[in-house]
Write a structure and sequence with these properties.
Layout: E1 2-6, H1 15-27, E2 33-37, H2 40-50, E3 56-61, H3 70-73, H4 75-85, E4 90-94, H5 102-106, E5 116-119, H6 122-131, E6 138-140, E7 157-164, H7 171-183, E8 190-195, H8 202-213, E9 217-220, H9 224-231, E10 234-238, H10 250-257, E11 261-265, E12 278-280, H11 283-295
Parallel strand pairs: 1-2, 1-3, 3-4, 4-5, 5-6, 7-8, 7-10, 8-9, 10-11, 11-12
Helix pairs in contact: 2-4
Length: 299
């Protein structure tokens, strides 16, 4: 049996939860899988009652569920120690390792004792091996999009941004592009398709206010099926990730499988996207490419 401990799981709107769900759906075709969300008491019960048949405990870190307070933030570490104390094999799946603060990375050192360290992209795996983890222990299990593909529909939106409303997603640059287009009196329809996380909403509230000022439609907390339908009605997705588009960006993948043209920034690991997305070197360059596309495409 595989026991997975995570801070988020559907219906939670969190990329980690989606990742665990997709992983569970695939693994359970051949193995028994139990998923425990947040509760250390439930985890302990599962370990005690199934110790003889548990082959591996996998801990997913971090996630929105583990970010609600300082105590919750250390639940994965406690779970890991418990697993080691009873002699079980362990693996840690690290999400967006390179984006973690130095303090958070410091507290990851205990996970060096895990049997396996799993990354979701080659980019993150390379950084993890260079900075903290033994390459003999690292493995790669890529992200899959939880947004289904939908048949293309009549266009409703010219450009959108979608995903969790949090920092580091390029939302500010998206709003800046909309603002610049409005200054030029260009006719277009835009939308922010976003999920407001349950933690601190101050950033989300600021983004919502700015979108309202720019007459960008707000489509919040939609289901995966609803997002798929909205993307099917969209021409362009403006996704200017600060570190550039890369394989770790599930929103870009979701847009592409729904045949939405992705505009993003060029980064260190963007080479595979050169021929399937429109890439800019900075926000001004990206704006010029958006303008060129709008001016040379039939509405």
């Amino acid at each position: 049996m595989l026991l997975i401990y995570t801070g988020s799981y559907p219906d939670d709107k969190c990329g980690v939860g989606d990742y665990v769900y997709n992983l569970n759906q695939e693994i359970k075709k051949n193995y028994t899988v139990n998923v425990v969300k947040l509760s250390l008491f439930e985890l302990i019960y599962k370990i005690v009652s199934n110790r003889k048949i548990i082959k591996l405990i996998n801990i997913q870190y971090p996630s929105i569920g583990f970010s609600t307070n300082k105590i919750a933030a250390f639940k994965p570490h406690v779970a890991f120690i418990l697993a080691k104390l009873v002699g079980l094999k362990t693996s840690i799946t690290l999400h967006e390792f390179s984006s973690l603060s130095k303090r958070a990375q410091y507290f990851l050192k205990i996970f060096k004792l895990a049997d396996y360290i799993i990354f979701t992209t080659q980019y993150e795996k390379n950084i993890g091996e260079k900075t903290l983890f033994n390459s003999a222990k690292t493995r790669l299990i890529p992200i899959a999009s939880n947004i289904p593909s939908c048949q293309k529909k009549e266009k409703k939106f010219d450009l959108v941004h979608f995903g969790i409303i949090s920092k580091g997603k390029g939302i500010e640059e998206f709003i800046w592009i909309i603002k610049e287009l409005n200054k030029k009196n260009i006719k277009f329809r835009s939308a922010l398709i976003g999920y407001v996380p349950g933690a601190d909403n101050s950033y989300a509230n600021l983004i919502i206010e700015q979108c309202t000022e720019q007459k960008c439609e707000l489509l919040l907390n939609k289901s995966a099926a609803e997002i798929s339908n909205l993307l099917a009605e969209t021409d362009m997705a403006i996704l200017p990730y600060p570190d550039g588009i890369s394989e770790r960006r599930g929103t870009a993948l979701a847009a592409m499988i729904n045949r939405v043209l992705v505009f993003s920034l060029r980064g260190q690991f963007s080479s595979e996207f050169e021929n399937i997305a429109v890439l800019g070197n900075d926000k001004n360059d990206l704006l010029s490419k958006v303008l060129y596309y709008i001016n040379n495409t039939d509405s």
